[in-house]
Design a protein that fits this description.
Helix content is 39%, strand content 16%. It has 331 residues and is α/β, with parallel strands linked by helices. The chain has one domain (7-323): Glycosidases (TIM Barrel). Helix 3 packs parallel to helix 4, helix 4 (131-149) packs parallel to helix 5 and helix 7 runs parallel beside helix 8.
């Protein structure tokens, strides 16, 4: 484990998922993205792009590969996620062939490959009856292929905290399905969580305890039930705090408070990194989907949709400089 600093990452694109579809806006500017990432990482720090592919079946596979090729040619492959949302069922043979194809085609440019993003979220991947099987078999197949052709690529899977929207008994069910071959194939467990975003607002002083409860529950309860040892790291793979209006309580979410919350969350994770074996923090995300829309799903960025800065951009840049791992360190 890297005991010196966190490995930072960021979702560099603009489209954001919502419970009812996608939040979209002005097109992504790849030149502006590269400039922003370079400024954030500076000359010596690591900042991994985190991007997503969604497997929806063989008919759309060529379009999915086109998206991945665009990320590759733009230098935006680092930590890659393959989500699985085929309707109404999945051909497991074709799914695993796609996983292997991604490793063969992009492995040299990847630091890690995450199989599924939110498989225990009831209205996303978790709503699919095949989700756990796709997760388990996908991880095992990915690890075998990575060991064979690109052993530097770490293999993991994603998750969200327990709660009203999470699947009950997910971890126990996954343990029964996976067993030792699955556990032995896992290099990390990704966790997506958003403090003070979808619930009642918290005072800034309450945020550290909320972060710690979330991560401690994952390590000490969920991963223990799955049989994942403490030697396997946790990665915070999605975390952020949007501006705009909270649609549930209609409170204004200011740019200044975004910066304060993100700093509090990241410093708390940094303090917990050794005890709970947390190696990565990856922010969602770089820019707003559409800054003209004041709902939170369109304003997750630390930049506006025209790539002008919010205060949180400089805050994140300083935290990378202060708490981040060096670019020369092997992850």
């Amino acid at each position: 484990m890297n005991g010196e600093g966190l490995t930072f990452g960021i979702y560099p694109m603009s489209v954001a998922g919502t419970p009812v579809g996608l939040a979209v806006g002005p097109q992504d500017d790849y030149g502006a993205i590269q400039s922003a990432l370079q400024e954030l990482r500076g000359k010596s720090k690591m900042l991994l792009p985190r991007n997503y592919l969604i497997y929806t079946g063989p008919e759309a596979e060529s379009r999915t590969i086109e998206v991945a090729d665009r990320y590759l040619h733009s230098g935006l492959l680092g930590d890659l996620v393959i989500g699985c949302l085929q309707e109404p069922d999945i051909d497991m043979h074709l799914w695993l062939a796609f996983v292997r194809k991604v490793i063969h085609r992009y492995g040299a440019s990847l630091a890690s490959l995450q199989i599924t993003n939110e498989p225990n979220l009831s209205f996303m991947e978790g709503s699919k009856p095949y989700a756990q099987q796709a997760l388990v078999e996908g991880v095992v197949a990915a690890k075998k292929e990575a060991v064979r052709v690109c052993p530097h690529v770490k293999i993991g899977f994603g998750s969200v905290p327990d709660g009203p929207m999470a699947l009950p008994d997910f971890w126990e069910s996954l343990a029964k399905l996976g067993g030792k071959p699955f556990v032995d194939s896992v290099d990390f467990v990704g966790h997506n969580f958003y403090v003070d975003v979808f619930e009642e607002p918290l005072d800034i002083a309450e945020i550290p305890a909320s972060v710690e409860r979330t991560l401690r529950h994952l390590r000490e309860t969920n991963l223990k039930a799955l049989g994942i040892p403490a030697s396997i790291p946790i990665r915070v793979t999605e975390n952020g705090w949007p501006t705009g209006k909270n649609p549930f309580v209609r409170l204004e979410r200011t740019y200044e408070h975004q910066a304060a919350v993100l700093e509090t969350v990241i410093r708390t994770i940094y303090k917990l990194r050794l005890e709970l074996h947390i190696t990565h923090y990856e922010l969602f995300g770089l820019r707003d989907a559409d800054s003209s829309k004041d709902d939170l799903f369109h304003q997750f960025g630390i930049m506006r949709d025209d790539y002008t800065l919010k205060p949180a951009y400089d805050t994140f840049k300083q935290l990378i400089f202060e708490l981040g791992s060096d670019a020369s360190e092997r992850q």
